[in-house]
Amino acid sequence: MKKLIILLSLTAVFFLQSCEKKGPGDNYDFSNSLPAYVALTSTAAKTIKEGASGTFTFTLRTSIQQTVKVTYKVEGALNLPNQTVTIARDALTSVATVAVPVGVIVAPATTATATLTLVSAATADGNALTIGSKNDASSQKVTINITK
After folding, report:
1. pTM value?
2. Nearest to 74 by CA among 94, 42, 100
């Protein structure tokens, strides 16, 4: 019986020696985490009447401890280059309003098209942020259908 107790004790000591000394929670690897990015909340086409306004929401993946300046442009029947909107510190979204003036549609046409494109985003200290969740800036566009 003594031999069995000694054998079990030695086995337990052997297994305890092979355990890692680090406990759970202190060995996380964040090297593959996504960088902070800015994207359009929706890239679905929007219809806006002449003389009205449409809203477009820009969103951050995670809140940042400083303001973020988002630059976008509208091209086509309506041209608005280098437009900016600011996402406040610790906020996740900001809304840009695009006003479509009367007279954008030239007769005899009854509709016109423009495209809003997310161009860039940077923090207050000048660090550029990724555009789109997959770093694909070309997918961050919204078609604007302008009607009378």
Report:
1. 0.74
2. 100
Q: How far apart are CA 6 and CA 12, in angstroms?
A: 10
- Which one, of 107, 114, 108, lies nearest residue 45 by Cα? 114
Q: Reduce the DSSP state of residue 13 to 3 states and report it.
A: helix
Cα separation of 64 and 11, whole Å?
A: 52
Q: Decide: 50 and 37 in contact? Cβ < 8 Å.
A: no
Calpha distance 134→132 (Å, rounded) = 6
* Alpha helices (H) along the chain: 2-17
d(CA 33, CA 31): 6
pLDDT in tens, 105-139: 888 888 999 999 999 999 999 999 999 888 888 88
CA proximity to 119, closest of 138, 133, 100, 142: 138
